[in-house]
Amino acid sequence: MRMYGVSFLERARELCDQYGVLLVFDEVATGFGRTGNRFAADLVLPDILVLGKALTGGYIGHAVTVANRKVYEGFYDGDPSHALMHGPTFMGNALVCSVALKSIELFEKQDYMSKIRRIEEITRREMEGFSDPRIKEIRIMGACVCIEVYDPDTIRGYQQFAYEHGVFSRPFLDYMYAMVPYVIREEELVKVLQTMKEWFS
User: Fold this and answer.
1) DSSP for 89-136?
2) Best exposed site among 47, 87, 123, 201 by fewest CB in 10 Å?
3) Tens of pLDDT along 134-189?
4) Is 92 exposed, middle or buried (0-12, 13-18, 19+ CB in 10 A)?
5) How far apart are CA 162 and CA 198, in angstroms?
6) What is this structure's pTM?
């Protein structure tokens, strides 16, 4: 789980413009505030933005690909051979679109960005000063926390350990991470973070 600052994204935008390459942001897992910003696209504008997961609050599968006018007009044509003839089976599903609209409405009305800022604040507080020689780096951004270890064997068995402590976790390669729900209570978040730290004791 790599985390990039805005300067990286700005440079990527410059290079894509320089070489005529489309800049695509996959925000399926990170959109709707996960990284502390509503979207990375609010900071640097991509040519294509892909959204999913939080788009419906996890209630029903849905995804969307948003393109800028340049990309859109590249396929907009009366000649069918020039058009992007793509029509997924469930495209435009009225139920799914209704759920997505309601999810976006709730996200905005209930000020989820303030909930995400609070999650980051608690995470930083709980992880402050924590270290272990087996840990390469601890990264925190929005409602994401990642502990990267030098050796993947270090976290082998953590998934079962976490389960036994009442926490669902799924480490990946040399990353132990948490992407908690935005409605998590403080004591629940602290438990998740304490479980991560206890693994190293």
Assistant:
1) TTTT-HHHHHHHHHHHHHHHHTTHHHHHHHHHHHHHHHHTT---TTEE
2) 201
3) 999 999 999 999 999 999 999 999 999 999 999 999 999 999 999 999 999 999 99
4) exposed
5) 10
6) 0.86
